[in-house]
What does this fold into?
Amino acid sequence: MWDYSEKVMDHYRNPRNVGKIDNADAIGEAGSLACGDSLKIYLKIKDGIVTDAKFQTFGCGSAVASSSILTEMIIGKSVEEVKKITNKDIADQLGGLPPEKMHCSVMGYEALEDALKNFDNMVDLDELRNEKKEEKIVCTCFNVTENLIWDAIKQNGLKTVEEVTNYTKAGGACGKCKGLIQDIIDTYYKKEEESKKDEQTLSPAQKILKINKIIESQISPELQKDGGDITLVDIDGNKVLVKLRGKCSGCRNSHLTLKAFVESTLRETVDKNIDVIEVA
It folds into this structure.
């Protein structure tokens, strides 16, 4: 018998916000019935604030509780705040989950991320479906992608195959993918070490050049695809001042673009302490 907190039991027995929202502004899905757990989350968003959230889930008590607490966590929050929620936050709000059930909190995070990607046609739905099809499947038993495993490692500091299985289910059936999972773990921490070395060895001038190069070669081209653009204005320590142009300028989702894309990209490629700020 799993050792569940009182909060987990409460949300399992009395789940909040069960159901669906007609004409939802965003819908996200994670898991599948074939894998034993599935979740569909519906969001109503007005002026950048999540005004309502409901869910439909099929799975164990931990899956129901994780979905229930997640809806409570996001209602009334801005999209920018919701974007920062991790599976660890979900588990913490429940007073913790048994290691073998952490995948339920990951499913909640994954469904929420999927919903935000679809919000307000921020990406073309056909393009999004094609991206999902192209994602590398590591665990065919539970249909777990390489990206999901990578995110779980990054957010939770996972270091063993057993931990990855607890958080994602990958490797929990036939076990044939355990070698691939270990390779992903090794690759992640190798890149982490390389990134730390880069941060320690970059001079201020080199850091400026690298930030400018990333903006010009990676960030700007992506924004140009949707009719937008970005210009580097100034760099003050870890503060990167930029100006959005084209369709990105004045867009109600510009802050999300800055934090979820621009800042995230620079933190991953240059320095994890970078703070991107938009200037007029």
About this structure: The chain has a mean pLDDT of 88. The domain at 204-278 is CATH 3.30.300.130 (GMP Synthetase; Chain A, domain 3). Strands lie at 26-32, 37-46, 49-58, 137-139, 144-145, 228-236, 239-246, 275-278.
